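Please predict the structure of the following assembly.
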Amino acid sequence: MSSMVISRPAALSELGQATLRRLTREWFEFERRLAVVPILRRLDLGTFTREDYHRLLLNLRPQVIEGSRWISRCASSFDREHADVRSVVLGHAHAEHRDYEMLEADFVASGGALEAIRAQPRNPGSEALHAFLMFRAGEPNPVGLLGAMWIIEGLGEKMAASWAARVEELTGFDAGCTRFLRYHSGNDSSHMDKLYGLLDRVCISERAAADIVMTAAVVGRLYAMQLEEIDVNR
Amino acid sequence: MTAAHAFVTSTGAFLPGPPIDNSAIEEVLGCVEGKPSRLKTRILKSNGIQTRHYAIDRSQRTTHSNADMGAAAAQRCLDHSPLPVRSIGMLSCATTQGDMVVPGFGSMVQAKLGIPAVELLTAQGICSSSTMAIKAASNALRLGEHRSALVVVSELASRLLKSTRYEAAGGLAAMDFNSEFLRWMLSDGAGAWLLESAPRGRCLRVDWIRSFSHADAFPVCMGIGTPSDHGDTRTWQDFPTYSEAEAAGALLIRQDVRLLEQMVKLGVDGALRLIEEGVLDVRLVEHFLCHYSSHYFRGKIADLLQMCGAAIPEERWFTNLYTRGNTGAASILIMLDEFLREGRARVGERILCMVPESGRFNTAYMHFTVVEGNNA
């Protein structure tokens, strides 16, 4: 039976290091895809509006709500040999399963109607992302989902570090309207330590490494699609 | 010998006038509307530069042209080599802005140096234009087309930074952090490297030069040519007159500071690409010369590099940015010149140079090995 606590390793194995390098490249690839997403390009160029912010929240909410579902399912798919991994994932599910309430409150605080955001369906990108994550989460010992956490948690930090203040600057909304975007700041190092610990624990074969990197690549592409869909009229 | 090589056999640098410390910058560049900058201290603290040189005097009159500085650096480079200037096969130059709009900067440098019938190249861009010029020179030698190539890179940014430029563009009322940022960052200077197809004394073998540009994905981060009004899509030559372009701020040099963190990430991205390709092994790099302050690579990104086995220990970093200033494209040439003059490079050691350009995100890498030639 493995130890019940996963913590930051002193150093990663050769395979762990190589996988972390590939994950970092996948993160940069994700960022370059985000940079050409129309609504985020407007954020960079300074033409982002209050309506853009509402559209962003409307389109993020379905995925945020589904997020707690795939993480919970993922936790239950780890067997007893992976009880330590399961503990970390469960803790993660618990920490995030009511994030959407903050997002809804931001929408209302910035002048949106609660009924409107609650009635917003998934866009095609959210649908594809959700379906992929739920499918992977149902597989036995879904270690590849570490790649999904890498992308989604990284994005949470990016929202806090790079989007929130910019949204406030361009829309005139105050920090009371951007609590969801800011939510993932402040615990950067512990969050990275957790990811390093999980990587050290589950990335123990070339197959696991390839699975983790591929899952990160797919999640990054589908997440970008979810944000691109904001500007698709239907 | 199977493949043709290129070797850096001599280097030279030229920095105009005396070193100017932080308290004297505005005495040279001038105070906009007679008032000292309120952002200066903050920006200088973040870039860490202590002294720099300017090719303008305290009345903002130009003391050296850009081509003068380039020729002076080239002369110092050639003074250290027995190679006669008339035998140079290729002259490969780069600058952000020549003295003239056209012809190319290289033509003006050639005229100053008096090299006859040389093959000429002028690379245009910002910081990484230097690596383009170096790579073109190296490739010409490796193709066997020439036996020697002189690379000359010079920058005269201060002419863009003098107070009258900002006053003409609306003065203090029109200035913001992005338009003022580079005023406290950039300064003047030139560097030159002589490349030859055979080693000469203790010299550097060019192992490889690579770069990755990301203009397809990211907006302009540093540039000159667009007006202060974001809604106006004209560039400077679209205005009826140049004076109208200047009044609209289209001739100011600007940095979109918010996008700068992307440069650090893309710098790492390129290194990881080269590691993955098997081209770069950072464990074998003894000296790392980076045209970017190391403190931008601290914190989370440093920890990540450490964890993934791609970090270069701080004691292997060399820079002279803090004492010679940020001379744009010329920086990496001036940096290598000073590094080699300190005599710390031993035979067999590997040197990695990195030039991340924020313009529209181009990151370049050059890898050298110190060798001992026998025909010194």
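The two ends of chain B are 19 Å apart (CA to CA). The first helix of chain B runs from residue 25 to 29.
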